[in-house]
Amino acid sequence: MKRYAILCSGGDSQGMNICIKAFVNTCATHDIIPIGIRRGYQGLIENDMIFLDGSMVENIQGLGGTILKVSRSAEFRTQAGLDKAVRNLKKNGIDGVVVIGGNGSFNGAVNLAAKGINVIAIPGTIDNDLYYTERTLGFDTAVNNAVRNVDDMMQTMDANSRGMIVKVMGRDSGDIALYTAVCSMANSLATKELGTTIDDIVEDVRTSINNGDVSPLIIMSENCDFDLKDVEKALRKDLGIDTRSTDLGYIQRGGTPTMFDRMFGMNMGIMSVELLMQDISGVAIGIKNNELFYTPLDTCLNARREFDTKLYNALRTMHNIGKK
Ligand code: F6P
């Protein structure tokens, strides 16, 4: 019987569990032995593997995190680490491995494929920063979590006529910030891609106040090179307004996956097994216009996507602030 393995790597993201469940159940349907590699590439180096079965994944579809756990493995980036990983895959008779993760994990998958390992990569990161695909697994849930929390906070800001500055995740990408800002109708958005300065934020807020807003909302990405307190200080000094700030942190990365992430995770889990069965490997799964596709793994990391200025300008229009 064939043996396929699955691992989650980098930061966890919502939808990884349902993806694992789909992988296990699809393997079972085709008499393939499903193996879970725990703690990502570090677990692979340390031969930390378990046989998976239906009972182990029975009710995990609604859970954030991952039952297989994750790691960010520095050792796997060394030649010795990679060689150990390859040896363990061979020793355990694994015919194909599915990697769920972000860009660092994709790099690792490319290195495994170069060693002759059959690899399928699945984009799993809340950051939406793998640009060959329109969406990464967990992004939709992370944005929904952020928006729900911002909505709650704005009720109390509104009651107090205060402004609010919220920092959201996204190490290399302002997408969480953009989508959160649009859905929560922020008066100002700050991201690295837009090159936003503190003066830009002050101007947006000034215009909003002139337009009658009493509790302006600013969403900033963690990829900006200034921090919450800098913005608070500038708004107090230049506009004399009282604001509060919150770093949303890991609330964005946990919690029950949305409908989109459940469907996306499930369908990619099924497809990963089907591709390996057809002897297709060295590819990554992605989504475009709501359809899954696969593409050579080594081209994925070079792909680039423009920041969605159309969406950003729609937000500015909502506040009667000029387009950029
Ligand atoms: O997984 C992506 C991400 O959540 C980024 O948005 C964030 O910068 C980073 O991971 C945080 O990493 P860690 O979990 O190692 O603190």
Task: Provide keyphrases for this structure.
four-stranded parallel β-sheet; binds 6-O-phosphono-beta-D-fructofuranose; 11 strands; 324 residues; seven-stranded mixed β-sheet; 11 helices; alpha/beta
**Rg calc:** 22 Å
**What is the residue-averaged pLDDT?**
97
Kindly report the spatial arrangement of strands forming the biggest sheet. 3-2-1-4-5-10-11
Largest beta-sheet characterization? 7 strands, mixed
Strand content: 15-25%
Task: Work out the helicity level.
Answer: 40-55%
- Backbone structural class: alpha/beta
Low-confidence runs (pLDDT<50, min 5 residues)? none
What is the β-strand count? 11
Based on Cα principal axes, name the global outline: elongated
Our count of helices gives 11
Q: End-to-end span in angstroms?
A: 58 Å
Give the SSE string: EHEHEHEHEHEHEHEHEHEEHH
Bound compounds, please? 6-O-phosphono-beta-D-fructofuranose
Summarize the structure in words.
The chain has eleven helices and eleven strands. It has 324 residues and is α/β, with parallel strands linked by helices. The strands form two sheets. The protein has a seven-stranded mixed beta sheet with strand order 3-2-1-4-5-10-11, sandwiched between helices. It has a four-stranded parallel beta sheet with strand order 7-8-6-9, with helices on both faces. Helix 1 (16-29) runs parallel beside helix 9 (259-277). The protein is elongated. The termini are far apart. It binds 6-O-phosphono-beta-D-fructofuranose. The site of 6-O-phosphono-beta-D-fructofuranose has 11 residues, from loops.
